[in-house]
Amino acid sequence: MDYAKRPWIFGSGFRNKKKEIKKKEIERNQPLHHSDSKPVLPKTSPSRKIQLRPLLIAITIIIFLLLGTRYWWREMRWRYIIIHHTASDVGNLAFYRKQHKARWGDLAYHILIENGSLDTARGQIEYSQRWHKRQYNASTKKTYLNYFGIAVALVGNFENHPVPTIQAQTLVKLLLRLSDKYNIPPSRIIGHGEVQNTKCPGKYIQISELRELIAKKRKKTPH
Ligand SMILES: [Zn+2]
């Protein structure tokens, strides 16, 4: 209905109607703020974002450093091999473990080469918990040798008699394997008696000959 052409019919109410129409027209022409404009998101402070990233990077670096150090300490710290004898012809890992436990908490050595006594096989190798956990050994009075050395002991008294062939063969194989795996040069295969005033590992184990043999065998099979 065209109100403008018939103002007399509507009386005073007409003016109000007119105002209403104008108001609606103005509203229609104006942009719809809430639907057309971009949605306003709650503001996140830019400083918070910047702080989070270095923090994550720092945490990642720390985790990698810790894991790397742990791995290095477990597998890459070995620099020496120390040879011992047990000075007794009867014994196995459990037997010596009992003897050493009170003083050193566990067997003092990492690896034991059996001589066939106490239900073992001659030349059999037993690894102590100390080796499984890659803990320091307690076999010498030199701290650096205990922390960075692998302690290998042969069951027997080799001050009194020669090393049985199978036990000697096992020792050579083991030394080759360890020196290869941990890149330990033959010059760092040491007899207990070379660093301390002791007869260990006995006069029948000639460490200098052993070093030469390992050096020769390593040359034959270069890696
Ligand atoms: Zn010793």
Report on the architecture of this protein.
With 223 residues, the protein is of the alpha/beta class. The chain folds into two domains: 12-36; 78-220, Lysozyme-like, CATH 3.40.80. 51% of the residues lie in helices and 12% in strands. The longest helix is centred in the N-terminal third of the chain and has 31 residues, at 46-76. Zinc ion binds next to loops.
* CA-based shape: rod-shaped
Determine the CATH topology of the largest domain: Lysozyme-like
The CATH homologous superfamily of the largest domain is termed: Peptidoglycan recognition protein-like
**Uncertain runs:** none
Number of helices: 10
Give the name of the CATH architecture of the largest domain. 3-Layer(aba) Sandwich
